[in-house]
Amino acid sequence: MKFIGITGGVGAGKSTVLAYLKENYKCHIALADDLAKSLMEPGSICYGALVDLLSPYQVFDGAGRIEKESMARLLFSKEEVRAQVNAIVHPAVKECVLAQVKEARNQGRLDYFFFEAALLLEDHYEEVCDELWYIYASEDERRMRLKRDRGYTDEKIDQIFASQMPEKAFRQACAHVIDSSGSMEGTQAQVRQILG
Ligand SMILES: CC(C)(COP(=O)(O)OP(=O)(O)OC[C@H]1O[C@@H](n2cnc3c(N)ncnc32)[C@H](O)[C@@H]1O)[C@@H](O)C(=O)NCCC(=O)NCCS
Ligand SMILES: Nc1ncnc2c1ncn2[C@@H]1O[C@H](COP(=O)(O)OP(=O)(O)OP(=O)(O)O)[C@@H](O)[C@H]1O
User: Which UniProt keywords are present, listed alphabetically (predicted)?
Assistant: First the structure.
């Protein structure tokens, strides 16, 4: 079983590529954002440390859950808080995904385990993955998609872009680049070409 990390900036088309992989290959898909969100829930392992760190900010709702919009505003505007949150959450995400990979390897039923995260390079997944893929679309294309499909403002897009690695770093670190600027069929053909 090959352990493949899928990365790229916000709105690059990672989820769309994963949906195709899930349909067409004997694989498991894990998403860093989903794992992170579950580990940040009340009662989960990161929650206590996040309460200690984030109590000065208005990010908790009435039930004590982290409220997405205010958390996004805080994390993408305050780099030092983002780094502290990442230092709590990302090691826990990595531990969790590595345990899942180990379990999948023991069971021996899958051809691939794909793990998607915008922050694979920051968290040094090149050390644990068999290979990394970079899903690429230009910043202009991603900005257009994020405004059209998610209603993000230019300010939010600028902040997220600034918090993620530049294109050059992704290209240097990843064995394969999938250009998702064209049609879905074109993107899927690139995936087939890589996996044979
Ligand atoms: C910031 C939050 C509230 C934004 O949630 P929202 O649903 O509005 O957006 P979404 O999750 O789709 O994120 C938008 C983009 O930002 C990226 N992103 C998320 N967290 C971070 C971060 N800490 N640093 C840099 N980019 C990030 C995502 O990968 C995605 O590309 C949420 O992502 C979060 O709680 N992040 C902290 C946990 C984390 O670090 N997750 C990233 C993977 S480990
Ligand atoms: N050829 C293509 N390949 C992949 N996605 C495409 C393509 N053309 C358009 N898109 C669109 O790009 C948008 C963003 O894709 P997606 O949500 O998969 O991004 P993402 O990289 O997963 O973002 P995030 O980092 O927020 O998780 C989607 O609306 C998708 O339909």
Answer: ATP-binding, Coenzyme A biosynthesis, Cytoplasm, Kinase, Nucleotide-binding, Transferase
**pLDDT tens string 136-175:** 999 999 999 999 999 999 999 999 999 999 999 999 999 9
* Closest listed ligand to the CA of 188: 2
Intra-chain end-to-end CA distance of the chain, in Å:
15
Class at the top of the CATH hierarchy for domain 2-195: alpha beta
94 CB near ligand 1 (under 6 Å): no
> Which CA distances in Å does 179 have to 12, 78, 137, 161, 171?
9, 31, 6, 18, 11
- In the chain, which ranges are E strands? 2-7, 27-31, 112-116, 131-136, 176-179
Ligand nearest to the CA of 184: 2
**What ipTM goes with this model?**
0.88
194 in Cβ contact with 133 (< 8 Å)? yes
Nearest one of 160, 193, 188 to 16, comparing CA atoms? 188
Q: Which atom of ligand 2 is nearest to the CA of 10?
A: 25
pLDDT in tens, 3-46: 999 999 999 999 999 999 999 999 999 999 999 999 999 999 99
Task: Give 72 Cα–ligand 1 centroid separation in angstroms.
Answer: 7
Q: Does the C-beta of 119 come closer than 6 Å to ligand 1?
A: yes
Q: How many angstroms does the Cα of residue 48 sit away from the middle of ligand 1?
A: 19
Whether the predicted pLDDT of 60 surpasses 90? yes
**Which residues on neighbouring strands pair with residue 116, listed in sequence order?**
6, 31
